[in-house]
Amino acid sequence: MYSIHTVDTMKDIVNLRIHIAPLGFEVDRIIIPAVRMKADKVWLIAHDNAAEDKASKYRQKIEKELEKKGIKTEVT
Questions:
Q1: How far apart are CA 2 and CA 29, in angstroms?
Q2: Which of 28, 20, 36 minimizes the C-alpha distance to 62?
């Protein structure tokens, strides 16, 4: 049986602050808002073909900086 949550019953559920950002050539465009808004996780949207993705070196920088700040990342 499924339960339906309302505002009153959701107090015990952990609310994560998740940011979704398309990967590009700007590192600060993703890092600064995530840190400022205290994101728990950042989903990076990357190119389907990693060999063609020219932003892969920026992705590494972004993931490293977010890790230093304690923010988890996931790439899709």
A1: 39
A2: 28
**Encoding tokens for residue 47?**
């190119």
The pTM of this model reads 0.73
Q: Which amino acid is at 57?
A: K
| Residue ranges of E strands in 1-76 | 18-22, 41-45, 72-75
| Distance in angstroms (rounded) separating the CA atoms of residues 76 and 62 | 14
> Which residues are CB-contacts of 22 (< 8 A; sequence separation ≥ 6)?
44, 45
Asked which of 22-26, 27-31, 66-70 is least confident by mean pLDDT, the reply is 22-26
Report CA-CA distances (Å) from 15 to 12, 29, 30.
9, 24, 21
Q: Residue written as tokens 């990342």?
A: 73
Per-residue confidence band for 5, with pLDDT thresholds at 50, 70 and 90 = low
